[in-house]
Amino acid sequence: MNKEEIVKVLMDTEKKCGLVETLYRVFGKNIKVYIGLSKSACDASIEELVLSVRSYNALRRANISLIGDLIELLNEGGLKSVRNLGVKSFREIQTKILVFCFEKLSVREKNAFFERLVENNTFNIYGGINYANNGRNAQIY
User: Fold this and answer.
1) What radius of gyration do the chain's Cα atoms show?
2) Sign, CA torsion 79/84/88/92
3) DSSP-assigned letters across all residues of 3-32
4) What's the predicted TM-score (pTM) here?
5) Which CATH class is domain 3-129?
6) By CB distance 3.0 to 4.6 Å, which of 9, 14, 41, 112 could disulfide with 22?
7) What's the pLDDT score for residue 130?
């Protein structure tokens, strides 16, 4: 299966199962994800992520109100130090940001997103066949 065919399978699976389920099925729990953000996405309120009450309140108490500020804190590793945000909340926030950003992408950008995933991760398509790309191990997003 070549890269274009794999990307097509990923695009089709995402339409049927959703992004998170597709990533989990194909790449497993540990995956390295890169996704672009527009200025309007960064300027959006964290309310648009539809977080749990615990996560939302913890972020508000930490004076985080914009998605761009949240992503900056996440990239700097400072999100883990926010009071009342445990592992479950941390993963919820990561997942909600990923889905929010993915939904803002055009079809062409979604295709490029899946191409980067295929290039940067080890994955499993069709019956337990693992494909390793560039000899890199996947990392949690």
Assistant:
1) 16
2) negative
3) HHHHHHHHHHHHHHH-HHHHHHHHH-S---
4) 0.80
5) mainly alpha
6) 14
7) 35
Instruction: Answer whether 119's CB lies under 8 Å from 133's CB.
Output: yes
What are residue 140's phi and psi, to 5 degrees? -65, 140
pLDDT at 45: 95
The residue type found at 67 is I
- The set of residues, in sequence order, having a beta carbon less than 8 Å from that of 46 and lying 6+ positions away, is 56, 59, 60, 64, 65, 66, 67, 70
Q: pLDDT, tens digit, for every residue of 7-56?
A: 999 999 999 999 999 998 888 877 888 888 888 888 999 999 999 999 99
Dihedral of the alpha carbons of 96, 93, 125, 117, in degrees to the nearest 10: 90
* Separation CA 57–CA 59 (nearest Å): 5
98 three-class SS: helix
Give me the residue spans of the domains in the chain.
3-129
SS3 131: strand
Query: What mean pLDDT do residues 60-69 have?
Result: 94
Give me the amino acid identity at 23: L
